[in-house]
Design a protein that fits this description.
- The chain has 119 residues and is an all-alpha fold.
- The chain has a domain at 2-66.
- Helices cover 76% and strands 0% of the residues.
- Helix 1 (2-26) packs antiparallel against helix 2 (34-56) and helix 1 crosses helix 3 (67-87).
- It is flat.
- The termini are far apart.
C-alpha cells in the first residue's frame, strides 16, 4: 500500500507543480517569477520522479509490484468519472467538491455555465 500512496502522491504533486506554472503564466502573469514558479516546481517534480522510479525499480516482489497498476487504474477511473459528469452537464458537483473542505460557498449554476463558455 505504501507504493500505491507514494506513486499517487507523486502524480498529484507533479500535476500541482504544473498547475503553479500554468496559473502564474496565465492568470497572474504580472506576479510571475522564475524561481518560485518555474525552478522550484521543476526541481520538486524531478525529485518526485526519482522517488517514484526508486519505488518501483528494481521491480519489487508481489504484491508490491502491482502498485503502479493500481495507481493507473485509480487515476483512470477518476478521469472517467470527471469526463462522465462533464459530458452529461452535471459538473456542478466537481465545482462544489472543494467547497465543503474549505467551507466556501458553493458556486451557482450561472458561475459554472459562465466558466464553461469562457473556455
Amino acid at each position: 500500500m505504501g507504493v500505491v500512496i507514494t506513486l499517487a502522491l507523486a502524480v498529484i504533486y507533479v500535476i500541482a507543480n504544473y498547475g503553479v506554472f500554468r496559473y502564474y503564466r496565465g492568470e497572474k502573469k504580472s506576479e510571475f517569477r522564475i524561481w518560485p514558479h518555474v525552478l522550484c516546481p521543476a526541481v520538486s517534480s524531478l525529485a518526485l520522479f526519482v522517488v517514484a522510479f526508486e519505488s518501483i525499480h528494481p521491480r519489487p516482489a508481489a504484491p508490491v509490484r502491482y502498485g503502479p497498476a493500481v495507481v493507473v487504474v485509480w487515476l483512470a477511473l477518476g478521469a472517467l468519472v470527471l469526463l462522465f459528469y462533464w459530458r452529461t452537464g452535471r459538473q456542478s458537483w466537481t465545482a462544489n467538491a472543494g467547497s465543503e473542505m474549505l467551507e466556501l460557498p458553493a458556486p451557482s449554476d450561472f458561475d459554472i455555465k459562465h466558466l464553461r463558455k469562457a473556455q
